[in-house]
Amino acid sequence: MTGFEVTPIGRVESSLTDPAAAPKQGPEGGPDAWLVIEPAVLDALDGVRPGARLVVLTWFHLARRDLLRVHPRDDPANPMQGVFNTRSADRPNPIGLHEVEVLAVEGERLHVRPLEAVDGTPVVDLKPVLD
Amino acid sequence: MTGFEVTPIGRVESSLTDPAAAPKQGPEGGPDAWLVIEPAVLDALDGVRPGARLVVLTWFHLARRDLLRVHPRDDPANPMQGVFNTRSADRPNPIGLHEVEVLAVEGERLHVRPLEAVDGTPVVDLKPVLD
Questions:
Q1: What are the chain B neighbours of A92 within 8 Å (beta carbons)?
Q2: Of A87, A93, A130, which has the smallest distance from its Cβ to B7's Cβ?
Q3: pTM for this one?
Q4: Is the separation of the CB atoms in A28 and A116 below 8 Å?
């Protein structure tokens, strides 16, 4: 099947810089961070306000796309699993899902928490959390 | 920012063929469906078993990528909102999120429900639901 082009709609600004030291999931100590949205798609933020819960979709640009099986949570004590049965960043299409709360909206900058993605991670979509 | 290439890891086989007639969300009457996984990434399914809850990421190949504001749920009575504040399929990167239960695993075929994506929709990732 042919592929599709994903275009970043923004990027993460975070105090986290080392993927190996970052939490595995936001609630495991992910800090607050900023999402800096591309001016070209700023209208798509209309209606996003502080207090909103969003799913942030990122592109793990540092991940390996050729790994199909991994030790979950990078722990060799965990038996190998297919990556579709894990949240590993290493996967054929390294898209990350992060549920966050919006703390502030300042123009093209969204303050959110918690977020375990490292500084510079491309953001590819934002969606409201469905209850 | 430069873009990234998403490669489908499978596709949806469903009785739904008309996007306009499909439910907006799986729980709103989405039927059961099959995910047919590409042989090249079959090892990534290791450990996915019936009863598992997965997030299926799809690529809405019929969506418009140039719409930044829409009437939520295609209802003109709903005030226009930025697409990042809606679950509209029309968005810059038309990635769909669908929470499903795995009913059966038959080789490269996963039987799941509920799924509102139409027949032929590319699948780009599978992840376990985190509780």
A1: 7, 9, 41, 44, 125
A2: A93
A3: 0.95
A4: yes
> Is A37 buried (19+), middle (13-18) or exposed (0-12) by CB count in 10 A?
buried
CA distance B128 to chain A (A): 6
| Each residue's pLDDT tens digit, B41-97 | 999 999 999 999 999 999 999 999 999 999 988 889 999 999 999 999 999 999 999
Can you tell me the ipTM of this complex?
Answer: 0.94
Q: Which residue has the tokens 């591309």?
A: A38
Q: Is B32 on the interface with A (CB under 8 A)?
A: no
Contact B79, B68 (CB under 8 A): no
Q: What is the pLDDT of residues A60-98, one digit of tens each?
A: 999 999 999 999 888 899 999 999 999 999 999 999 999
Residue A108 near residue A39 (C-beta atoms within 8 A): yes
Chain B residues 46-75 with CB within 8 Å of chain A = 46-48, 52, 54-55, 57, 59, 61, 68-69
Residue A96: its pLDDT value, please?
A: 97
